[in-house]
Amino acid sequence: MKAVRSMVLVSSDPQSMNQGAQLVFDRLQQELKAFGLESEISLSMVGDVGRHDAVPMVIVYPEAVIYGPVKPDDVHFLVEEHLYKGRLATSLQAPAKELTGRIAWLSARRGTLPAEQRVLLRRVGVIDPNSIEEYIVHDGYAALGKALTEMTPEQVIAEIEKSGLRGRGGAGFPTGTKWKFVSKAAGARKYVIMNADESEPGTFKDRLLLEGDPHSLIEALIIAGYAVGAQEAYIYVRGEYMLAQERLRTAIQQAHEMGFLGENIFGTNFSYDIHIHSGAGAYICGEETALIESIEGKRGEPRPRPPYPTTNGLWNKPTLVNNVETLANIPPILHNGAAWYRTLGTPSSPGTKVYTILGNVNATGLIEVPMGITLREVIAIYGKGMRNGATFKMAQTGGSSGSIIPASLQDTPMDFDSFNKAGVSLGSGALLICDDNNCVVDLAKVLLNFFREESCGKCNPCRIGNQRGFQILSNIAEGVAVLKDLDDLELLAENLYQLSNCGLGQTAGAPIKDVLKYFRAEVEAHIRLKVCPSGVCPMSGKKYHI
Amino acid sequence: MSPIKSLEDLKRVREEALEKRRVKANSGEIQIIVGMGTTGIAAGARETMKAILDTIEKDSLTGIIVTQTGGFGLDANEPIIQVIVGDQPKVTYGKVTAEVARQIMKEHVVGGKVVQEYVIQA
Question: In whole angstroms, how far apart are CA A273 and each of A64, A180, A233, A423, B29?
Answer without folding.
Answer: 47, 21, 6, 42, 39
